[in-house]
Amino acid sequence: MERLLVLVRHGQSEWNLKNLFTGWKDPGLTEKGVSEAIEAGQQLKDLKLEFDIAFTSNLSRAQKTLDLILAELGQTGLTTIRDQALNERDYGDITGMNKDEAREKFGEEQVHIWRRSFDVPPPGGESLKMTAERVLPYYHAEILPRVLQGNRTIIAAHGNSLRALIMELENLSSEEILKRELGTGAPIIYRLDEEGNVQSVQDLAA
Questions:
Q1: Which of the chain's ends, N or C, has fewer CB atoms near its CB within 10 Å?
Q2: pLDDT tens digits for 148-160?
Q3: What class of enzyme is it (predicted)?
Q4: How far is residue 159's CA from residue 110's CA, in Å, rounded to a whole number?
Q5: pLDDT at 206
């Protein structure tokens, strides 16, 4: 029995393009982001992958990315579950702020700590550790059981919610996951054993 799990970060958003902290705000995809999502669908189609169920966040950039991928696969009617547990990390008070402006206001070192430490959140926001604390229980309760039953599963979500999953799947340390960059619209294909451990991983951005 195949136990397939595919993770895809959404295509480039309007706020990615403007270098803004996005978090739970809901900008749409850029033209490039749309193209990235379509390309992701084409890559999965070339590999002859199909899915039994899809998960995404409550944010439209991830939902639109998923819709475009499924359209390429001819699976527009696929059962899709949306949940804010898969939302991007909440950047709190710096949401909507240009990253360069944030460095000028708070100092480069402080902004670097907020962005790249594991457990230090920005004011009013979430750290990666806090993001993982909502993503991983949802994964274990709602997603992993379906994968283990043989449901081929795709998740379209966000850089940090997916980092939380990758940290768990690949047994990475808090230091290792902070160095992991996820390309927009680039599928990562995992095949799991009967206990949910990763047997193989294929990163289509590589």
A1: N
A2: 999 999 999 999 9
A3: isomerase
A4: 21
A5: 64
Residue 143 identity: I
Q: Out of 10, 36, 126, 158, pick the active-site residue.
A: 10
* Residue 133 annotated as catalytic: no
Tell me: is residue 15 an annotated ligand-binding position.
Answer: yes
User: Is 88 one of the catalytic residues?
Assistant: yes
Contact indicator for 127, 57 with CB cutoff of 8 Å:
no
- pTM score, whole prediction: 0.96
Task: Check whether 65 is labelled as a binding-site residue.
Answer: no
Residue extents of the structural domains in the chain: 4-36+58-203
Query: Does 96 belong to an annotated binding site?
Result: no
Please pick, among 36, 39, 88, 168, the residue that the annotation labels catalytic.
Answer: 88
CATH (residue range 4-36+58-203): 3.40.50.1240
Residue 3 annotated as part of some ligand binding site: no
Give 72-76 contacts, CB < 8 A, sequence gap 24+.
72/38, 72/40, 72/41, 72/42, 72/44, 72/45, 73/41, 73/44, 73/45, 73/49, 75/50, 75/51
